[in-house]
Design a protein that fits this description.
The structure is a single chain. The strands form 2 sheets. The protein has an 8-stranded mixed sheet with strand order 1-10-12-11-13-16-14-15, with helices on both faces. It has 15 helices and 16 strands. Strand 11, helix 10 and strand 12 form a beta-alpha-beta unit. With about 550 residues, it is an alpha/beta fold. The protein is elongated and about 75 Å long. The site of zinc ion has 5 residues, from helix 10.
Length: about 550
């Protein structure tokens, strides 16, 4: 052993001693946990796991699952069948809405024909139509930054394949695509460096800024960002009127064959439908732009078929439950959104969160351990377009946000645990600024720290009390405990989130097994403890 290594070992030993001596002081309130139950949950989760099998069906058989698409419905039927097989009760679809049209891809072919053939890596943007057979046409570069650009291209785009975005500048990747949080990073996130920023208050400045066309992100589709929606509708109406054959974008992120893109149109049947649209890999997009800049007009071919589902415009959530034994009207919920974007198969967003929630209830149902409270699983629809499924659910069941007239169910909802941050291990749990909740969660994670969940975060910052990001915020929006886990990012931001590489192979088996085990353990503890969990504090000032 060399000297630095000895120093490191000594340092680690000293830290271990220090943490031993301060450990009791960090847990002022002990929540008694059932270690026998924990052993059984761990055995079921690690020896008989079905989480990857769930994921296989959700992503590889039924994916992708754009809200209200035929695939999404078929996936929901499968999930309900599974839940019934495991003995869940009251398994059903809960409708909300109307959401609007479902949509999915039936066919995509794209190629550069001249000056030399190349197959184009890409996929159609959601809620855009097909080409009605194969179209071969000249490429035209016509970046549309705002309505002011329309005049430049008026009358020049008929029958053309139009690149509506600037070429993208690409840089060398010098860092690993995947990342696991280090102990230092987790430690840093458990601290609140500046308590003057508590999380309460208006949304981040610039959050709803006008997007560039082609940079279609989920936030621009929601009513929270009307400017994005107006611009998208203007662009679609203009391109349609000009008789454009196909519109292309390079995606809003990604390279090296990975394309991040979501929608080009909207589920709202009243919004204008644009021309067929696809995102292609930015290297190939840039090649077409460079050819044009050199005075060479490439010919491109596209053959795109898409399917609008207009039979039933109502959205839906999948719900099932394990009834409680003595306090069945008190409810512990677990879940995640079931819908996805279309480029990949929605494996990490949010096949894993759905597979984990299903596996958590399967574990609990299989163990047949009595739980006083009902454990309910919900697989939301319409999350990607603006949390529609969970927002509708909490308002139907607990309290409409405008009146805040609480239903009897409001006081009986104990907690909702959400999983929607990719496929990474659970590394910490959020306590939404509630000190009592933090102490309880500390007791729950104390016996499972070896599995990589190390701490409670969000000790000072309260919830934003505004919906955004993911479905747990729909609960905290009306003052309920909507709890999320901090997960290892893995390749979520760099490779899979809303991309064509959101695929089964990018999911790490051990990570989702750990997530399912922890979600089952948290749900079990909540469903069996004497009292319901303390509620988040909603007395802080909010803007809405
Ligand atoms: Zn998601």
């Amino acid at each position: 052993m060399n000297l630095p290594r000895i120093r490191a070992v000594l340092a680690a030993f000293t830290i271990a001693l220090l943490s031993l001596s301060i450990a009791p002081a960090q847990q002022p309130v002990e929540d008694k946990v059932d270690l026998g139950a924990l052993t059984q949950i761990k055995n079921e989760a690690f020896q008989h796991s079905q989480v990857m099998d769930n994921l296989f069906y959700i992503s590889e058989v039924y994916g992708p699952r754009v809200t209200n698409s035929r695939n999404h419905r078929a996936a929901a039927e499968w999930a309900m069948q599974q839940m019934k097989t495991w003995g869940l009760q009251n398994v059903h679809l809960e409708k909300w809405g109307p959401f609007g049209d479902g949509w999915q891809i039936k066919k995509y072919y794209g190629a550069l024909e001249t000056p030399a053939y190349a197959a184009l890596i890409g996929f159609p943007l959601a809620w855009t139509p097909g080409t009605n057979g194969s179209v071969t046409a000249d490429a035209v570069l016509a970046p549309l930054h705002s309505e002011a650009d329309f005049a430049k291209y008026k009358g020049k785009l008929k029958g053309k394949i139009v690149l509506i975005f600037d070429p993208r500048e690409l840089s060398l990747h010098t860092e690993a695509e995947a990342h696991r949080l280090t102990d230092e990073e987790i430690e840093a996130r458990t601290k609140t460096p500046d308590p003057s920023h508590t999380g309460f208050g208006p949304p981040r400045a610039g959050a709803a800024a006008t997007p560039r066309p082609g940079e279609y992100t989920p936030s621009t589709l929601s009513t929270a960002a009307p400017t994005g929606r107006i611009l998208r509708n203007q662009v679609n109406a203009f391109l349609k009127e000009e008789g454009v054959a196909v519109a292309l974008t390079p995606g809003y992120n990604g390279d090296g064959g990975t394309i991040f893109a979501s929608y080009g149109g909207s589920q709202d049947p009243k919004d204008p439908v644009g021309p067929p649209m696809a995102a292609i890999t930015p290297e190939q997009y840039n090649r077409i732009c460079r050819l044009l800049q050199h005075g060479i007009t490439p010919k491109l071919t596209f053959d795109i078929e898409t399917e609008y589902q207009k039979d039933d415009l109502m959205g839906f959530n999948v719900v099932g439950e394990i009834p409680g034994t003595t306090k069945a009207d008190e409810v512990v919920m677990v879940g995640g959104h079931f819908d996805s974007w279309q480029g990949g198969t929605g494996a990490t967003d949010n096949g894993t969160g759905s597979a984990v929630a299903m596996e958590a209830v399967r574990i609990l149902a299989t163990l047949h351990k009595p739980m006083a409270r009902t454990v309910r699983v919900a697989l939301w629809g319409g999350e990607e377009e603006g949390l529609y499924g969970s927002l509708a659910y909490v308002q139907q069941h607990f309290a409409p946000r405008d009146t805040m007239k609480k239903t009897p169910e409001y006081d009986k909802l104990d907690v909702y645990f959400n999983d929607d941050s990719g496929s990474g291990k659970f590394r910490a749990v959020s306590a939404l600024g509630n000190a009592e909740l933090a102490a309880i969660f500390q007791s729950w994670i104390a016996p499972i720290k070896d599995l990589g969940i190390e701490s409670v975060v969000g000790l000072t910052a309260g919830p934003t009390l505004q919906p955004g990001g993911t479905d747990s915020t729909s609960f905290s929006w009306i003052g309920l405990d909507g709890i999320g886990f901090m997960q290892d990012p893995l390749e979520y931001g760099s490779r899979t989130h809303h991309s064509n590489m959101d695929l089964y192979d990018r999911v790490q088996t051990g990570d989702v097994m750990q997530g399912a085990m922890i979600e089952a353990w948290f749900a079990y503890n909540a469903a069996t403890r004497a009292e319901m969990l303390p509620r988040i504090d909603t007395t802080a000032p909010t803007t809405k």
